[in-house]
Amino acid sequence: MTVDDRQPPTDQTVRRDLGELLTAARKNAGKRQVDIQRLIGKSQSTVTKIEHGTTSISHEDLGLWITDCAVESRLSEKMWMLWSRANAPRRVWSGERIGTPEWFVKVLATETRAAEVHSWTGERIPGLIQSEAYMYDQFGGTGLSMEVSPRFTQRVKRQELFNHPAKGFVFVISEAALDRLCAQKDDIIEDQLGHMLALTRRANVTIRYVPYRAAAYVDPDFIIFRRADHGKDIGYSENSAGIDWSTRRSIKTYAKAWDALLDTAATADETRSELHRRFQRRRSGDHDRE
């Protein structure tokens, strides 16, 4: 096989190369996987997957890993190069390649252009803040079909939007969504809660939950995209056939509903404390009753 005949590296092979470097850096620094787990706030199974290259690592977590293991500059540059390859924009929005439903193409384009994304979900953890372990479970486990695997890849890629500091994200979820999460498998629950806690450390991501005692409850789930260029806000809600985009009239309804949710939701600090409480109870095994 000549050089010209070789296939370009896939995301999987690039992640594997990065994982090998991260493993070596951890061992050279005399650290255990549990040390990295505590550092980045993920489960040990996730750290193992990162080192094996079967799951990706976020921009923030890679920076923490490199700093904590005192990786020398030349090796650090190689790590960042591999990370950039695996998360290159050209790999993110390829509608035909990843089988994006036609109705969702507009969502992706609007989401990319928006200055702020405001998301409300009443019974579930929204896709943008799902951990990879949770996604796998939602998509049917590790035996992913050819149809499901691209959807998983797309969802992971979308989360790279968090790396744009100028973009803001506010997620409001119900307490019911947290309870439904905590009915999943133990390792998935721990991974998802740890992932959400890590997201709350980002300056441009806010997560708040609406407790059962709140007076307001909004149905259905919806998302509002706010524009930075004085353009009109746009929103949508999902249904069984696809989505309903907002009209000039309904976007005002969305905005009122959003304000009502913020008025009744726990603060970002209170939400972080609740997530941490559930995370610690799960880790300690004291979770017979959440």
In short, what is this structure?
This protein has helices at 11-28, 33-40, 44-52, 59-68, 73-86, 102-113, 132-138, 148-158, 175-181, 186-200, 250-264, 268-284, and strands spanning 116-121, 168-174, 205-210, 222-226, 234-239, 242-245. The chain has 290 residues and is of the alpha/beta class.
Q: What is the CA-atom radius of gyration, in angstroms?
A: 20 Å
Number of helices: 12
Number of strands: 6
Tally of discrete structural domains: 2
- Apparent shape: globular
Structural class estimated from helices and strands: alpha/beta
Contiguous runs where pLDDT drops below 50 for at least 5 residues: 1-8, 89-99, 142-147
Fraction of residues in helices?
A: 40-55%
Ends apart, CA distance between termini: 58 Å
CATH level 1 class label of the largest domain: Alpha Beta
Question: Reading side by side through the largest sheet, how are the strands ordered?
Answer: 3-2-1-4-5-6
Task: Write the CATH architecture name of the largest domain.
Answer: 2-Layer Sandwich
* Mean residue pLDDT: 82
SSE order, one letter for each helix or strand:
HHHHHHEHHEHHEEEEHH
The major beta sheet can be summarized as: 6 strands, mixed
CATH topology name of the largest domain, in short, is Endonuclease, Chain A
Into which percentage range does the β-strand content fall? 5-15%
